Amino acid sequence: MESDCRIPVTCLRPRVLVLHALFWGLVSLRVFGASLLSDVKSSVMKPSATPCWQTEEFIVASECTQCSAFWTKAQTACSYTGYVEQINCTKSNREEFKSCRSALMEEHLFWKFEGAMLGLTMVFALLVVARQRSLDQQASEKVRRQIESI
């Protein structure tokens, strides 16, 4: 007689359930945290007038540069990424600062991510090797006990 349960018994083990709960908890925290942060940023970001670079075409006057400690506090554009570029709007002839992402910053973040992935790969490879050794030892112990019982 077959069970109507579609979930395998291995998925109901406490360790697997805890790992699933942890995973989905982190995913939901990431999603809801991002939405909360965007709400906070949008409420803080609402200036009295929209920047000219959002409504009209512009020319980049100075390339993306890192903000100094003073500029980080003085310019709101610096607070988002830590880099800013000066732009000139074509229709209104206004000069404004726009937050930007530096190629150097992107490269640094890329290598940081690669290092983290390499580290995680090594950790999980070691876990797999340890688990395999443990299972091999259990299997050989079981075979030894079976031979002794004969």
Descriptive report:
- This is Protein JTB.
- It is found in: Cytoplasm, Cytoskeleton, Microtubule organizing center, Centrosome; Cytoplasm, Cytoskeleton, Spindle; Membrane; Mitochondrion.
- The chain crosses the membrane at residues 16-37, 109-130.
- It contains five helices and three strands.
- It has helices at residues 14-45, 52-55, 69-74, 78-81, 103-149; strands at residues 58-66, 83-89, 95-99.
- A hairpin with a 5-residue loop joins strand 2 and strand 3 (95-99).
- The radius of gyration is 28 Å and the shape is elongated.
- Helix content is 62%, strand content 14%.
- Residues 42-47 have low confidence and may be disordered.
- A three-stranded antiparallel β-sheet has the order 1-2-3.
- The chain folds into three domains: 1-46; 52-101, Signal recognition particle alu RNA binding heterodimer, srp9/1; 102-150.
- The chain is α+β, with helices and mostly antiparallel strands.
Protein topology:
Layout: H1 14-45, H2 52-55, E1 58-66, H3 69-74, H4 78-81, E2 83-89, E3 95-99, H5 103-149
Antiparallel strand pairs: 1-2, 2-3
- CATH architecture assignment name of the largest domain: 2-Layer Sandwich
Distance linking N and C termini: 34 Å
Please tally the β strands and state the result.
3
Radius of gyration: 28 Å
- What percent strand? 5-15%
CATH topology of the largest domain: Signal recognition particle alu RNA binding heterodimer, srp9/1
> What is the chain-wise order of helices and strands?
HHEHHEEH
Count of DSSP H/I helices: 5
Shape descriptor: elongated
Q: Residue-averaged pLDDT, rounded?
A: 80
- Total number of distinct structural domains: 3
Strand adjacency order, main sheet: 1-2-3
Described by its quaternary structure, the protein is single chain
The secondary-structure class comes to alpha+beta
- How would you sum up the major sheet? 3 strands, antiparallel
Percent helix range:
55-70%
* Low confidence ranges: 42-47
Text of the CATH class of the largest domain: Alpha Beta
